[in-house]
Amino acid sequence: MSIEPPEKALILIVDDSAANLGILSEFLANDGYRVRLEKDGKSAIEAIEVQKPDLILLDAIMPGMDGFETCKWLQASADFKDIPILFMTALSDPADKVKAFDLGAVDYLTKPFQQEEVLARIRLHLRLRSLTQTLKEQNQQLQKEVEDRIEAEAALQELARTLEQRVRDRTLELSNSFEELQNAQTQLIQTEKMASIGEIVAGVAHEINNPIGFIAGNLKHLEEAIGEILDHLQLYQNHCPPSNAEIKEHEEQIDLNYLIEDIPHMLHAMKLGVDRIGNISISLRNFSRADTSSKVLGDLLEGIESTLLILQHRLKGNSNRPSIKIIKEYNELPPIPCYPAQLNQVFMNLLANAIDALEEKYQTEDKQLKLKRDKTLEPPTIWIGTESIDDRGVIIRIADNGAGIEPEICDRLFDPMFTTKPRGKGTGLGLSISRQIVEERHGGSLTCHSIPGEGSEFAIAIPIEDLE
Ligand SMILES: Nc1ncnc2c1ncn2[C@@H]1O[C@H](COP(=O)(O)OP(=O)(O)O)[C@@H](O)[C@H]1O
Ligand SMILES: [Mg+2]
């Protein structure tokens, strides 16, 4: 801590009495101080403005601007208020002393002066001033340090925030890429699976075709041949009625008349069966048609019909529920540039989900309403509607009056692996793959609308785009 040496301190003495000025300046100078003298307040202020003193000895009573006014002016000035002011006066009225201290004086000297006392007080106040200044400087230094630290802390916090944000962004990026990867993988597995199933199915369908062909061809000949044999038998019966007991017995044993009547029915049923196998084979081939690498013009109604035929066995009634009614509200659709086998997969997923939802509804309602079931429950139904919107696109709706979907899971239906079905039954991939096929491969949309307990509707919208 540096204290200004008293010898160098500049002291301004303001007094209208020349005698006082003389005495004071002399012993102060002798003590090593630099001294300036002024006779009144006004000239004192002018002198202070030129050179700032370290301490002021100020006479209280002076003509013109007196000590009190001078003190007031100095205290009001930001530049000079820190100069210690010692009042000097012969007055000993305590009110004056109080007034001086109120105005900002630091001490009071009463005339006549005791030389030693004046010097001691001056030294004390100079020292105090020097200490105050050092303190002030240290304070400023400290304050600056505090400010610097606050600034550094704010910068650190900002850095931490930026870092956190970067970590968050990166995590989001990572989880997005992970999700994309998962989707791509799901899609890949599914595409691979469908491709190999498709190949097998197409192969099987093709292989069945030949045998069906010759069964159908031979059935026709068989029908004719049996017709002729029956006519021939009839001739026998007319012209040579059996007298032989063995023949008669055999005729009764095999119930010949019934056989003659039934054989055409059997043949008819066989023909129907063969027709159906033929249709199924065509549907299988349609359904699994190996997809081209670019879009082809596809008949979506044919795709829906093939899918329905493949799902036929699941529509039939069972011990839990009556058979499922299919209501077709078809409007004609133009041929659509698309990947037909992939869209068939979408129809398959949506129809299978609708059947599951109908089954679930019957199972839960069945427990509560076992007896009233047939009366209270409307028959399980699936509606399939198609419409085309000018030449801009087509919409296919698949609706059911099944269990419906709770609003809180509506947003998650399309997430990969989301399923409400028991392990082994649901994979949770159907809707996610369907959405990928409709939205990413065909630029369309797949949306769901459902009322819990009443049913659900899924709408596929596909824009008509030019073939690439
Ligand atoms: N038609 C529907 N009615 C009611 N819920 C449905 C329907 N379609 C889909 N869901 C719900 O969406 C979930 C996900 O379907 P999906 O992705 O096909 O997977 P999964 O059928 O293997 O469960 C189903 O578990 C079911 O909860
Ligand atoms: Mg499903």
From TrEMBL:
Gene3D superfamilies the UniProt entry points to: 1.10.287.130, 3.40.50.2300, Histidine kinase-like ATPase, C-terminal domain
Residues bearing the modification 4-aspartylphosphate: D59
One Gene Ontology MF term: phosphorelay sensor kinase activity
Lineage of origin: Bacteria, Bacillati, Cyanobacteriota, Cyanophyceae, Oscillatoriophycideae
Protein name (Swiss-Prot/TrEMBL): histidine kinase
InterPro entries: CheY-like_superfamily, HATPase_C_sf, HATPase_dom, His_kinase_dom, HisK_dim/P_dom, HisK_dim/P_sf, Sig_transdc_His_kin-like_C, Sig_transdc_resp-reg_receiver
Ranges in coiled-coil conformation: 125-162, 348-375
Annotated source species: Oxynema aestuarii AP17
Histidine kinase domain segment(s): 203-466
PROSITE patterns: HIS_KIN, RESPONSE_REGULATORY
A Pfam family reported for this protein in Swiss-Prot or TrEMBL: HATPase_c
Enzyme class: transferase
Listed PANTHER family: HISTIDINE KINASE, SENSOR HISTIDINE KINASE
E.C. no: 2.7.13.3
Ranges for domain Response regulatory: 10-126
Matching SMART domains: HATPase_c, REC
Alphabetized CDD domains for the sequence: HisKA, REC_PA4781-like
